[in-house]
Each structure stands twice: as C-alpha cells, then as structure tokens.
C-alpha cells in the first residue's frame, strides 16, 4: 500500500502543477481575479495533500491500516474539496451552475481535517 500512496501523492502533485500552470496561463484571461484566487486555493490544498501523502507513504511507525484510512480520507476529501473549488471558480465558463453543488466543498474539507486528525490520534495512542 505504501507504493500506492506514494504514486497517488506523486500524481496528485503532478496534477496540481499542471492545474496551476493552466490557471496562471489559460484561465487568467477568462475568469476574474477573485475566481482565479479561488482556483489557486484549490491548487494549494491539492499540493499540500500530495506532499502529505508522499510523507505518509514513508512513515515507518504508522500502521498500514491507519495509512489506508488516512489515504482514502485524503483522496476523497481532495476530490470533493479541490474538485468542487475548481468547478466553482470556473462556474461562469459552463452552462451548469456549480453553486448548486457547492455544499460538497465543506464535506471535502471535513474529510481532509479528519485525515490529519486520525493520523494525530493514531500516533498519540500508539504504544
């Protein structure tokens, strides 16, 4: 599972760089500064959590079961959090109103917080 976590972290990081370049060069001309700032927030959280997964894959004293739970919380949390932020930031470019599904952003954020919290709890309670 460590290899899966590592590869996923690397891919998520790669996608964050690609989306960052797309935002800086492609979206800059078609969305406003507030929307671009929102888009960049999604990228920041995506990159932070890519690095988190890479680090998680290398932690020797964390049980595999804990790593699995944290891994899935981060992946689903990122899809909901950063994914919804990307859609909300580019809402004006589509005919679908992504504000209707904006409620999933805090659900994703809660899952990201849960991942960190679960890891902290696991480390604190390990004997």
UniProtKB/TrEMBL annotation:
Q: Name one Pfam family in it.
A: DUF423
Q: Which UniProt keywords apply?
A: Membrane, Transmembrane, Transmembrane helix
Is Transmembrane a UniProt keyword of this protein? Answer: yes
Q: Does the keyword Transcription apply?
A: no
Q: Where in the cell is it found?
A: Membrane
Q: Which residues cross the membrane?
A: 47-63, 70-89, 101-124
Q: How does it sit in the membrane?
A: Multi-pass membrane protein
Which family does this protein fall into? Belongs to the UPF0382 family.
Name-wise, this protein is DUF423 domain-containing protein
Q: Which organism is it from?
A: Croceitalea marina
Organism classification, top ranks? Bacteria, Pseudomonadati, Bacteroidota, Flavobacteriia, Flavobacteriales
């Amino acid at each position: 599972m460590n290899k899966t976590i590592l590869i996923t972290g690397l891919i998520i990081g790669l996608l964050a760089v690609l989306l960052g370049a797309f935002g800086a060069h492609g979206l800059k001309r078609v969305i406003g500064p507030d929307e671009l700032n929102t888009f960049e927030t999604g990228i920041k959280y995506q990159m932070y959590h890519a690095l988190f997964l890479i680090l998680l894959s290398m932690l020797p004293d964390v049980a595999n079961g804990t790593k699995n739970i944290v891994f899935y919380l981060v992946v689903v949390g990122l899809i909901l959090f950063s994914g919804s932020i990307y859609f909300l930031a580019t809402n004006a470019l589509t005919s679908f109103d992504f504000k209707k599904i904006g409620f999933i952003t805090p659900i994703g954020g809660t899952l990201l917080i849960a991942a960190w919290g679960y890891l902290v709890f696991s480390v604190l309670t390990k004997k």
